[in-house]
Specification:
With about 475 residues, the protein is an alpha+beta fold. The chain contains 17 helices and 18 strands. Helices cover about 35% and strands about 20% of the residues. It is globular. The chain binds flavin-adenine dinucleotide. Its cofactor is FAD. It is an enzyme of class 1 (oxidoreductase).
Length: about 475
């Protein structure tokens, strides 16, 4: 096996031996112990082709007990483990860096129960997000999370990354929506934090340790989610605006007018729209403008919702905040608008290592101001800089296409520029994607020493041998 990759040295873990494989075949049936290198390829490679591991084993448990037996064995034998859900992580967190044992939730995909009075759903960690939503739809509920990867990502992965997405503005993040969790710690111990109560202040809220810790503290096996009633009526609007100042003023007006029915506010800049046109063969439905806003309302009274939306549009047009717009109320037309936004990541993916992506959180007033200094400072290196994202949450996705293939050195140079500017604007270098592997090396710079020490102590307590997702989050 390789000892050093991506400037990281392989930890002092054992590598898989024949006896280990035989042992795993006793825990799982042999079909669920994958060792074929061709079959392993996609599990070793992350969605954006940024990190490629060299694991020679993938395990597919079906039950919590099996996860427990696997982790117990790995811990006793000092084998490193990489938990994997749908493998859509944006930061290489879901794939091994070296030869870690991949443990996938692929076959832990049962929805266990739904309380039809409260909308509390209990499911196994490997349920695909969209499948949970399809299950809930006829029962009148909705999953409170909507991300472009919904057809592939697993709820366990969503919890482990504290995924955000388009509806966060209305429903909040996973910390608020997850009522309970079952997780297995590194030594195989099963932790039952499966409360299904909205209020439960009995001691430390341990479930939160597993939300957003990206598989470094435990393996999530079950999730209990509070799902809101499914809104009966949705509207989407696609608006064209003159400049970013007007984008911000429109956002303020939107919140005032639409209040509780506002369920998404996304922004797209001109370079991104040109990219969408060229690479995804989709187009703005209203012609060309410097900025575009995509908004969604979700409510329970058609007339009331439409009235509110039209009052907002009337005022925004009259005051010159928006220059043009189109509104959709039919599901197919709404989806056509959303697909423009949802497909962006696919287009960028095609650029492989020439594309660098940054998921930043910024104060609203500086949300777009950060682009110009980044363009200037990366001149000569970058071909184009793009800005789009979940404006409603202050979350800007900044993509940079480089002139040349990215070497580690080049990536580090551009990272340094972006992170310096984000810090200067009092922002965060990860709004919703986490730290994963690619940002772990920056934690020393972005976190105060004592908070980082506390994180390391929590990690040591739950995973003394450091077998769970090494090289990720904190190193
Ligand atoms: P994986 O990618 O498999 O894993 C992610 C991390 O969680 C890894 O560190 C992994 O080790 C760990 N993990 C996975 N399962 C478990 C488990 N059961 N127990 C413990 N640890 C586990 N993210 C957003 O927040 N908002 C978006 O809008 C968004 N849009 C996206 C659009 C596209 C097209 C793509 C490709 C990605 C997008 N993402 C977005 C990123 C990604 O989809 C999310 O981070 C998602 O939550 C990952 O889920 P997953 O099942 O694919 O997890």
């Amino acid at each position: 096996y390789t000892k050093k990759k991506f400037n990281v040295i392989r930890g002092n873990y054992n590598s898989i031996q024949k006896e280990d494989i035989q042992h795993f075949r006793k825990i799982l049936d042999s079909k669920r112990v994958v060792t074929d290198s061709v079959d392993l390829e996609k599990y070793n490679t992350d969605w954006f082709f940024q990190v490629r591991g060299t694991s020679n084993i993938l395990l597919k448990p079906k039950t919590t007990q099996e996860v427990s037996s696997i982790l117990h064995y790995c811990n006793e034998n000092k084998l490193a483990v990489c938990p994997q859900g749908g493998n859509t992580s944006a930061l290489g967190g879901s794939v091994p860096v070296f030869d870690e044992v991949i443990v996938s939730t692929e076959l832990m995909n049962k929805i266990i129960s739904l309380d039809e009075d409260s909308g509390v759903v209990t499911c196994e960690a490997g349920c695909i997000l969209e499948n949970i939503d399809k299950y809930l739809e006829p029962k009148g509920f909705i999953v409170p999370l909507d991300i472009g990867a919904k057809g592939t990502c697993h709820i366990g992965g969503n919890v482990s990354t504290n995924a955000g997405g388009m509806r966060l503005i209305k429903f909040g993040n996973m910390h608020g929506n997850v009522l309970g969790i079952e997780a297995v710690t590194a030594n195989g111990e099963i932790l039952d934090c499966l409360s299904n109560l909205k209020k439960d202040n009995t001691g430390y809220h341990l479930k939160h340790l597993f939300i957003g810790s990206e598989g470094t503290l435990g393996f999530v096996t079950k999730v209990i989610l509070q799902c809101p009633p499914r809104p009966k009526y949705r509207n989407a609007a696609f608006l064209g605006l003159q400049n970013f100042d007007k984008v911000l003023k429109t956002f303020k007006l939107l919140k005032g007018h639409l209040a509780e029915i506002l369920s998404a506010v996304e922004v797209i800049d001109t370079p991104t729209m040109e990219f969408i046109r060229k690479e995804n063969k989709q187009d703005s439905p209203i012609g060309d403008y410097p900025f575009y806003l995509m908004i969604e309302t979700s409510g329970s009274n058609e007339q009331h919702d439409e009235e509110k939306l039209h009052l907002f549009l009337e005022e925004a047009l009259k005051t010159g905040l928006i220059l043009n717009g189109t509104v959709a109320s039919e599901p197919a037309k709404i989806q056509a608008i959303w697909s423009i936004r949802e497909n962006i990541a696919n287009g960028f993916r095609a650029y492989g290592s020439r594309m660098l992506q940054y998921d930043t959180s910024l104060p609203f007033k500086d949300y777009y101001n950060i682009l110009e200094p980044i363009k200037e400072s990366t001149e000569g290196l970058s071909e184009r800089v793009f800005g789009f994202g979940h404006l409603g949450d202050g979350n800007l996705h900044l993509q940079i296409i480089l002139k040349n293939e990215a070497t580690d050195e080049l990536k580090s140079r551009v990272d340094a520029v972006v992170f310096e500017k984000v810090a200067a604007f009092n922002g965060s270098i990860s709004a919703e994607h986490g730290i994963g592997f690619l940002k772990a090396k920056y934690m020393d710079k972005i976190k105060p020493k004592n908070t980082l020490n506390l994180m390391r102590n929590v990690k040591k307590l739950l995973d003394p041998n450091g077998i769970l997702n090494p090289y990720k989050v904190i190193v």
